[in-house]
Structure formats: C-alpha cells, structure tokens
Amino acid sequence: MHLTRSTDGTHGNVADRFPLPTGKYWGPLEGPRNSWSNRFGTEPPSSKDGLRRWQSTLGIARTGVYDAATRTAAIALQRAEGWPVSGHIHAREWYAVITGGWRLPVPPRPATPGARKITDATGPGRTDRFGMAATDLGVMTRTPSGRILAVFGDTFRDPVVGGGDWRSPVALYSDTTDLDEGIVWHEAAGPDPDHARQLWAYDHGANTTMLPSDVITLGDDIYLHVMVNEGLGNVVRTQIWRSADDGRTWHPTEAIFEADLHDGFAQLWTWARDDDGWVYIYSTGFQRDRGIILRRVREERITDPDAYIGWGWRDGRWAWGNPPTPVLEREPSAERFGEMCLRKIQNTWVLVSFDASTAGGYDIDVRLFAAPTDNLYLVPKTTPLRGSAWGAEGNDRIAQLYGPSIIPGSTLHGGLHLLVSQWNTAVGWPYRAMHFKVPAR
C-alpha cells in the first residue's frame, strides 16, 4: 500500500502516525520536559518502539534511545531538507523517514572489476548509414531465423536529440557471431534495409512517442511491448505489437494496458520465457520512482490482458493470484528502478537493471537467481557499471547511463554483453547506445 501525506501532516495509516504526544519530541536527556530521550525511565513503551522503528528504517542501531547516531541521522535529514538543524526528531522528521522515503546517503558501491567498453553501438560511423545517428535503448531478442534484432527508441537523423526525422520505434538486425569484436548492424527492419523506418505509422502530435520496453520471441512470432508517451515519462497506456515475419512488419494486438494498472507499476516491462511455457514479467513505472512487481502469463495467452497473474503478499504469505506487491522497493537493494532486462541464460535467471535510487544508486546492477519468485533482496548481486560525471568516464564508469539490455549470445562463464544507453541531457549529444562486456558473477 502506498500512502501519501496530506498537507496538514495527517496520514491514512494509523500505524504510521507520529507516536509521541503533541508537543513532545525525541531529544537529549538533559533537554526540557518535552524532550524524550527514552533514558529517563518513565517514557511509555510506544516511545521506544517508535524510535526503534525510525532508527531501523534508516539502517542505524535499533537502540530505542536518543543517542549520538540518532542525533547525527536527524541532523543529516534536517540539512538535506533545509530545515533548522537541532538533531531532534519531531513529527516532521518522523514522517520524512516513515512515509516520505528519506534515507541516509550511503557510500557508492565499488564497480565490479573486469567491465570494459567494447565499442559505440550507435552514432556517427556506426548507424548513421541507416539514418539514425542519434538513438537510444536497443532491446534485443534472437529472431525465429536466428538473427539478433534490436529495437530502439526515439531516433533522429543527425547526431543530436531533435536532429530531424524523428522516429520510434526503429529496429536493426545483426548477424554478429563474435561479440567480443563488437556488435555490427547489417540491415534495418521494415521495408527498406538501408534506412531504419519507424516500425508502424502514428501521429507524433502532443509529443507522442512509442518507446520499447522489451521484446521476446515465442515460437515463430516476436512480441514487442511499448509505452505510449505524451511527453517523455507521461505514459498514457502500454500495448503489445506482434511480428510474424522475423521483425520486418508489425501489427497491433488486443493487449492494451492502462497506464495506472497496478498503481503505475506496470508501465516499463522486461520479460522472459521459462521452459514450462510461462512468461515472467518484472515491471515498474517509467518515472524512476518505484520498485518492481512480478507477474506471469502463459505464452499462448500473451496478448490477453486478463490472463496475467500477479505475485503478491497476502495473509502472511506470497502466492500467485494475489494482486502484485513490490518484490524490490527498498534498501539495501534499491528502491527506484529504470530500464531492466530479464533473461534465462544457461538455466540461470539474470536480471540487469538501472538502479535510479537517490542513495547508493545511479548504476547498473546484475542479479542471478534460480527462479523469478526468489527473494531478490537475498540473491547474488554485482554492480559492474556505475554512473560518473562527464569527463570522468572509464571502462566501468558512464556519465548519464541508463537502459541496459542483454545482447543475445551472452554467457555466464564468458561474460554478459550489454547495450547501455547514454544521453547528455544538457546538450543533446551523446545520445547513443554503447556495447559493454561485464562479468556475470
């Protein structure tokens, strides 16, 4: 359940209300009478329980008393929010943490050794011959004929965002067999192999664009999930398109989903098929302010919106058939997600995701697990790529990174090949996808 605080400080969930009487706050023992330290001995149990909850939420020791670590955390919050600095915990400091989601900054996690950039996958000299010098994303699948198909988002003729001939989505084929040499594009999908035309026609009025979430091959068909945006990040619906000719032509299906489905957690998808015929879907919002939910659908019913089944927590347990509840939404893992890529490689599930968290995020994480229903807080995770400032980039450091997608042909022992997007939003270039190789473990 997601609750929002009203402007008068009241809350819909009684359990989240500030536990101290009016006018009281947590502060030092030597403070005035309205300063409760939980050291005096007369404070009620609810005071200690409440302070323990506040401490635990921030990841500091759950002492239940006002101590040095608690004071330091309160000061950090007050400074971050521009409030008067006292180190005391009033209702405002309580709600900022318990319902507002504020967390202590954490030191950046070191990048996993061994990551390296192989090549720019798009841009001048790479894809401008297809009329797409500027593009991003590049969600990928192996087509029924065995080729690599990559579907890209907003695309422009010239090497700058807005550089003419705006299209989305577009797609390229690759017949590359040695990924260590870098992915090479051989032709465009659509009617013209030499020019990446938009995969289907629609009106770009009101800044409308259709952005690819993920693509999957099931038998002789390819399915592409797209988000319909009226202005970037303003998703108005999502839908699934199908190709029966290796990705050359595309047709809409009956699978249309409202933007607020599952409280907005079902906009940006990634999916993969298991050997049992179920397709598993992790999804989140497209605003980088949400966690992840899990659903599944039988492959033969992928275009039936009513056939999707949620994985959710109810009556003290997780089960299929419940309304989906977030499977990742808080530290120490991540609480805000961007683009993701789920694939099953050598009988191991691999989830590569852009962690957009404000604390300890701004990176690309890799998780390995045995089943999609595993506890994702506990599965092995590495961080092979981290964000950086412009001018401070390296093999494992990327400025304004996002949009990881696993290139078909990746292996666990040989390494994961990823397309990773980059967009300098200040000047409009670089705006491209790059090919990286990272360790899987």
Automatic annotation (TrEMBL):
Residue ranges annotated for the DUF4185 domain, each copy included: 123-436
Disordered as annotated region, ranges: 1-51
Name by which UniProt lists this protein: Uncharacterized protein DUF4185
InterPro entries xrefs: DUF4185
Bias-annotated ranges (Polar residues): 1-10
Organism: Nocardia alba
Lineage start: Bacteria, Bacillati, Actinomycetota, Actinomycetes, Mycobacteriales
